[in-house]
């Protein structure tokens, strides 16, 4: 079966380890046939304390040019120009509209911030010991559902339950009710989701989303793709085959593969 990863980073953002060229070369060596470069879309000056979290605005043009340029050297691969775009809710101050993303083949929709806190960064993780996980999970799901059902041009909702990253789970609220809401919102917005394999290698020890949440998406008819969320070349193809098997276990029989220029092809899981 073909290998794909629709979620990767490079040194264009402040916290990845290999250049775009090195990531593409690693993908080629691993036999990946379709890859999306999905750099963290720039945050505004109001998020200055989190400047490590995204690409600076000054690099946006060079980034797009670099992705287009590298395609010519890897004609055997589909290389999508993409970005990972934070849902900032009421803190959105970038003046972006759906038209701002017309040049991108894929836009990942991500919730990394809850009311100004970058909850999934190891640099900001201490706060987890001071808060009520129930409240934070509820707030996360509210934001995720808002994002999924919004007018933002998200192709794929990334790492749907990344809120579990450090292993903190709600104690009172039931996950099942939250999962139902997330599946409904993904349908309302016409979004795909991804199996993001990076979660397996964090404290929670699981892919994003969990098997139960992925089953909800499958039952609701939400298409699913696969991303490794690689921030280093050696992780470019990590657990892609396992992710296909995981999707199969959740009931999927096809992997969605977003295309250069828009649209999607469906690849049977063998
Ligand atoms: Zn992310
Ligand atoms: Zn990412």
What is the fold's blueprint, element by element?
Elements (H helix, E strand, L loop, with lengths): L2 E3 L14 H10 L2 E9 L19 H14 L4 E9 L19 E5 L2 E2 L2 E2 L14 H17 L6 E2 L17 H15 L2 E5 L14 H9 L4 E4 L12 H11 L3 E5 L5 E5 L2
Parallel strand pairs: 1-2, 2-3, 3-4, 4-7, 7-8, 8-9
Antiparallel strand pairs: 5-6, 10-11
Helix pairs in contact: 3-4, 4-5, 5-6
The protein binds zinc ion (2 copies).
Structural write-up:
With 270 residues, the chain is α/β, with parallel strands linked by helices. The protein has a single domain (3-268), classed as Alpha-Beta Barrel (TIM Barrel), CATH 3.20.20.140. The chain contains 6 helices and 11 strands. The protein has a 7-stranded parallel beta sheet. The protein is globular, with a radius of gyration of 17 Å. The relative contact order is 0.16. The model has no long low-confidence stretch (mean pLDDT 96). Bound molecules: zinc ion (ZN) (2 copies). One zinc ion binds at residues 84, 110, 112, 158-159.
